[in-house]
Automatic annotation (TrEMBL):
GO terms for molecular function: propionate-CoA ligase activity. The keyword Transmembrane helix applies. PROSITE patterns: AMP_BINDING. Residues 4-58 form the Acetyl-coenzyme A synthetase N-terminal domain. Keywords: Ligase, Membrane, Transmembrane, Transmembrane helix. Belongs to the ATP-dependent AMP-binding enzyme family. One of its GO terms (biological process) is propionate catabolic process, 2-methylcitrate cycle. Residues 61-443 form the AMP-dependent synthetase/ligase domain. The keyword Transmembrane helix applies. It comes from Trinickia violacea. This is Propionate--CoA ligase. InterPro entries: ACAS_N, AMP-bd_C, AMP-bd_C_sf, AMP-binding_CS, AMP-dep_synth/lig_dom, ANL_N_sf, Propion_PrpE.
Length: 631
């Protein structure tokens, strides 16, 4: 363990020296004058004065040496279309897209909201923004109109880029009616919507702001758009994520620190080398997609595989066949996807030649031991669990095989990653917990490069949400419970707040509650996450109706349940849809009116709710029990 320990120690004791050395991994148009500015805690600035560009580092820099190597391989099992782009071709496409965006008035510092399915144009759009110095905000295609509208109002984009439709599991999902509705709901009026026409669905955007991409692409076919050299601490993107309130937080990221952190992670954590092929089965709307579908593999000179579809169509062997066909070296997905694959015929996996694969990476939610044991055994290659958050942009806890291949321990993603001064602390006192003691996973100041710089447009919210003063120092809370053993391995024991994790998708229960509350029949609602064998957690809703009689008959109940679920689909998106809606006469609350979500979740999982604060009306618990027993 000494190599890892020394490496980690150095990164914490002398962060400026440590990261100065790592910064040579990327191109700096102008060198930085200060590695680390920690003069204004909890804010951090890395590589101050240095000027660089993420798109240059992802593309231009590789043209001379790997122009003819594939940069992007896009596979859609929904449309049956496969498209490949060498670094030179991807460079051309990104320039075209950048020229089109520029012609529509997009300039440095302006926001571009990207609402696209998993198509190459999504990668073009992200990199085109980076090229122009515009700030992209990618919104997951599974989100519906109200979520989209909230993000439009917060980011105030100059342009929205969308497509006619996405597709999943053989179902076409029309995007344009959602965008139209979102724009009607939003207060911020975006002048232009750039539409990528996949010819999957009729587009139904209002003509007043619709701009078709294809003719403009033709017009700017030979365009070259120079990279804007940004100061390292300017913003590269805003990515919204869920918290305890219904209002999503815009996680803001820098340019230089992010590029350096990703480049270093490719060596020390992922062991990805230039020329390798990496398949990250996530979505560009999530942080894993930003970091490990788009930026990190390209910055490090790899070929990245973009996949539209599910892991089980046309059959459960599709991902393993992709590994064989594309000689994939690194694969990255979520425990939920593995639990789905585990249920498939094992012959499908055995039939594929997986000899190219060196390691499988998993993140986004706890990796349960049976799934971990199964995949270790079935694959016979290193399986690397890694724990992090949208806020950090890259792993916080992992076995860093490129530093030292420590033995994995079931139930733990590994040890703290270099750069992160991780401590398990008592939730009340803030004191450090001893080995084996449960506490909150916290990170010391300063956070390493690549982590969020602030909440978009709201420094106060950044400070108030994440940072508190503990033992006289600023401390960042991950809002996860954890426990660290004598060897330094950390296990994650679930969130401390009302955030739930459904199939690796992060949701605030408040967001789902707000969606349900928008239905006229609903008086009160509580949403909790309960354990699920495949998705990790699923949301369950408990609803008090304005008119209790409305759900008296079983028929009325199921009709109303369907109507409420449809409301969530329309408002938030089907990804946030509760597994069930239970109708109850009242909800358990404290005397001061706070919902006892934890008690509700415990009952729903058949656990003892334990010690409870004084309940306003204890009958509420009995009501819940009988409803849950009734099914
Ligand atoms: O609760 C932790 C869980 O997912 C949260 C972060 O989700 P998100 O912002 O979507 O970022 C995902 C980036 C991989 C964390 O606060 N989580 C993430 N990875 C793990 C995990 N829980 C346990 N084990 C993990 N490997």
């Amino acid at each position: 363990m000494t190599r890892y320990r020394d490496f980690h120690r150095r990164s914490i004791d002398a962060p400026a020296e440590f990261w100065r050395a790592e910064a040579t991994r990327i191109h700096w148009e102008t060198p930085f004058h200060t590695v680390l500015d920690a003069s204004r805690p909890p804010f951090t600035r890395w590589f101050v004065g240095g000027r660089t560009n993420l798109c240059h580092n992802a593309l231009d820099r590789h043209l001379a040496t790997r122009g003819q190597q594939d940069a992007l391989v896009s596979v859609s099992t929904e449309t049956g279309i496969e498209r490949r782009f060498t670094y030179a071709e991807l460079y051309d496409e990104v320039n075209r897209m950048a020229a089109v965006m520029r012609s529509l008035g997009v300039a440095r510092g302006e926001r571009v909201l990207i609402y696209l399915p998993m198509i190459p144009e999504a990668v073009f759009a992200v990199l085109a923004c980076a090229r122009l110095g515009a700030i992209h905000s990618v919104v997951f295609g599974g989100f519906a109109a109200a979520s989209l509208a909230a993000r439009i109002d917060d980011a105030k984009p100059a342009l929205i880029v969308t497509a006619d439709a996405g597709a999943r599991g053989g179902k076409v999902i029309d995007y344009t009616p959602l965008v139209d509705e979102a724009l009607a709901r939003a207060e911020h009026k975006t002048a232009r919507v750039l539409l990528i026409d996949r010819q999957l669905a009729p587009e139904r955007l209002s003509a007043s702001y619709l701009v078709a991409y294809e003719p403009l692409r033709e017009q700017y076919f030979n365009a070259h758009v120079p990279c804007e050299w940004l100061e390292s601490n300017e913003s590269s993107y805003v990515l919204y994520t869920s918290g305890t309130t219904g209002r999503p937080k815009g996680v803001q990221r820098d340019v230089g620190g992010y590029a350096v952190a990703l480049a270093a992670s490719m060596e020390y954590i992922f062991e990805g080398r230039a020329g390798d092929t990496m398949f990250t089965a996530s979505d560009i709307g999530w942080v894993v997609g930003h970091s490990y579908i788009i930026y990190a593999p390209l910055i490090a000179g790899l070929t990245t595989v973009l996949y539209e579809g599910t892991p089980v169509r046309p059959d459960g062997g599709i991902w393993w066949r992709l590994v064989e066909q594309h000689k994939i070296n690194l694969m990255f997905t979520s425990p939920t996807a593995l639990r789905v694959l585990k249920k498939q015929d094992p012959a499908l996996m055995k039939a594929a030649d997986l000899s190219s694969l060196r390691a499988l990476f998993l993140a986004g939610e706890p990796l349960d031991e049976p799934t971990a044991a199964w995949i270790q055994d079935a694959l016979g290659k290193p399986v690397v669990d890694n724990y992090w958050q949208t806020e950090t942009g890259w792993p916080i806890i992992a076995i860093q095989r490129g530093v030292e291949a420590l033995p994995p321990k079931l139930g733990s993603p590994g040890v703290p990653v270099y750069g992160y001064n991780l401590a398990i602390r008592d939730a009340g006192s803030g004191e450090r917990c001893g080995p084996g003691e449960k506490g909150v996973v916290t990170l010391g100041y300063p956070l390493p490069p690549g982590c969020m710089t602030t909440v978009w447009g709201d420094d106060k919210r950044f400070v108030d949400t994440y940072w508190s003063e503990m033992a006289g120092e600023p401390v960042y809370s991950t809002f996860d419970w954890g426990i660290q053993d004598d060897d330094g391995y950390v296990s994650i024991l679930g969130r401390t707040d009302d955030v739930i994790n459904v199939a690796s998708h992060r949701f605030g229960t408040r967001e789902i509650e707000e969606a349900l509350s928008s239905h006229a029949a609903v008086a009160e609602v509580a949403v909790v996450g309960v354990a699920d064998a495949v998705k990790g957690q699923v949301p369950l809703a408990f609803v008090v109706l304005r008119d209790a009689q409305a759900a008296a008959a079983p028929d009325d109940r199921s009709k109303l349940e369907a109507a409420l679920l449809a409301t969530v689909d329309r408002y938030l998106g089907a990804v946030g849809r509760p597994a069930r809606v239970h109708f109850v006469a009242m909800l358990p609350k404290t005397r001061s009116g706070k919902l006892l979500r934890r008690a509700i979740a415990a009952l729903a999982e058949g656990r003892d709710p334990g010690d409870l604060p004084t309940i306003e009306d204890p009958a509420a618990l009995q009501i819940l029990r009988s409803v849950l027993e009734g099914g």
